[in-house]
Design a protein that fits this description.
Number of strands: 6
Mean pLDDT: 88
Structural class: alpha+beta
Shape: elongated
CATH architecture of the domain at 19-99: 2-Layer Sandwich
Low-confidence stretches: 1-13
CATH topology of the domain at 19-99: Alpha-Beta Plaits
Distance between the termini: 26 Å
């Protein structure tokens, strides 16, 4: 198992089957955030990135909302991060959290799936 350093210097394990949490955010109809809320949302993402918890993030292009891929320890931490997002906390977005594994050359594009 290899390790890498995050921006804060914390060593993160890189295994073939890292579990991420995909946050699918959906905009609340008829509730538009201000520029200040967007700026707070950006600051939230920047903090997560600095802490090594943000893998990917970006807006949907065909609707109000977006996706955030979190690198956190468990579902409870993912839920806490989601609830702290100013877009969610302010009632501008709802969200769904989905545990997710990335298919990569390291796992032969077949991540191990737990029995459900």
């Amino acid at each position: 198992m290899a390790t890498t350093s995050t921006p804060t210097g914390v060593v993160a394990e890189q295994s073939d089957d890292v579990v991420y949490f995909l946050m699918l955010a959906r905009g609340v109809p008829d509730k538009a955030p201000s520029e200040e809320v967007f700026a707070q949302h950006g600051a939230h993402l920047r903090r997560l990135d600095h802490e090594g918890k943000l893998a990917l993030a970006g807006p949907f292009l065909d609707r109000f909302g977006g996706a955030i891929v979190l690198r956190v320890a468990n579902l409870d931490e993912a839920r806490r991060v989601a609830e702290e997002d100013p877009m969610v906390h302010g009632g501008y977005e709802t969200y769904e959290l989905v545990p997710w594994k990335q298919a990569t050359p390291r796992n032969n594009y077949l991540p191990t799936l737990e029995k459900r």
